[in-house]
Amino acid sequence: MASMAASDSGNINLNVGGEAVKGPDPSETTIDIIDRDPANMNAHLKVSFEEIFAEPHPTIFSFDGVWTTSYTVFRNTKIWCYRISTLLCAVPAAFVWGIYFALLACCSIWCCRPCTRAFEMELQCFKGFYAAIIGTFVRPCYEAMGFLFYNFRIFLHNGGGPKDNSACS
């Protein structure tokens, strides 16, 4: 039986099987509001105006007003389209992905890992059988081949033929 009590230090005190266990309180986790990509997972999505638009030579520049207005329109359109699409999609997507990863963790913990462990245990029977077959039939063949070829020597000689090629003409 497990019982739980909260403490003032942000840890949870658990009593599992009569043994006291401490752990962090998952309800008190915080997120960084400023750096929202600390692992830099989406560096490829950080696109600036200068990476997309560039006028190659000073003699063919557009008007300064057109350039600055284009920059402002690009930046604001990108920001507001992202904000509106996240307003509509972020919470439902977070809900769906939360369910998915919870089910994935549950399946991994309660289905896949026990099945893998059972399979490993079942293979132990075949491990001894396989080792006996290899030791009885395969290993003697390889040892015999080794005894046949262990005394072969290869000698390389430089020369041995005529050095003067003028006699061949």
From TrEMBL:
This is Caveolin. One of its GO terms (molecular function) is molecular adaptor activity. Keywords: Cell membrane, Golgi apparatus, Membrane, Transmembrane, Transmembrane helix. The chain crosses the membrane at residues 84-105. It is a peripheral membrane protein. Belongs to the caveolin family. May act as a scaffolding protein within caveolar membranes. Interacts directly with G-protein alpha subunits and can functionally regulate their activity. It holds the Pfam family Caveolin. It is found in: Cell membrane; Golgi apparatus membrane; Membrane, Caveola. It comes from Littorina saxatilis. One of its GO terms (cellular component) is caveola. One of its GO terms (biological process) is caveola assembly. InterPro entries: Caveolin.
